[in-house]
Amino acid sequence: MTQDTVGRLGHLNLLEFGREQARWSDAGRVEEHEGVVLVAAGTTLPFLFNAAGRVDDDADAGSVITAADDFFGRLGRGYSVMVRDTPEDADLGAACEAAGLKPFGDAGSPEMVCRTRLADAEPPMGVELRWVTSRQEVADFTAVNSAAYATYGMPTNSLADTITNPSRFLASPHLRSVVAYIDGEPVAAAQTLLSHGIAGVYWVGTLEPARGKGLGEAVTRAVTNLAFDLGAACNTLQASVMGAPIYLRMGYETIYHHRAYVRWSVRA
After folding, report:
1. Which CATH code, of 3.30.450, 3.40.630, 3.40.50, 3.40.1350, is assigned to 3-108+258-263?
2. Whole-model pTM?
3. For the chain, does the N or the C end have fewer beta carbons within 10 angstroms?
């Protein structure tokens, strides 16, 4: 599989992840037309949860912004656009800037890929990994990542507002999540989403007091290898500042970067 193909499939997997998050609550909304996908999750937070993107790289870049302003304006909330630093998205980045969307963060997020199954490894001593199969484990997954992503400034209610229908979360056969426990307490989590012949790693988080113990690597290794075992040709992810060195050490490689552009509020 060429790097261009992997990059394209990773982009499509990311868009599918947006659709998936919208399905986790009755308030979620998804619209698609003319090569543009618009997803609104149960929370109003623009970044990560409410987004516009292109399924078709040839779709007019300006139409993405126009469609997003209309869709999110009707919902009375802001949105974000993930732009790749590749030739395919040069026009989309320019359209975001011309429309007044603001870059989020100082640097782009690495799009990373793992092409082969990783060596199996036991989790750190005293750590139990559980695949999420119950409503309580969904709650544990939510609690871990709500607290973990507060490090980056994410409001602690955002993920809970997104996962308001745990039954839908559990019913998706292409979505698998894992939680790490120490003495019965949830301390880390990760998720894999299979689509387009590959898998994407999402929602990797570790509680601050438990960081530095190899838990992030343990849960990422678990979902990465499960995805390969389920038939994924490769795994992709969008790395955080803290996560990137861990993924590089594990065997992931960077193929391009994303820059998020945000319109913090839209009114119809």
Report:
1. 3.40.630
2. 0.96
3. C
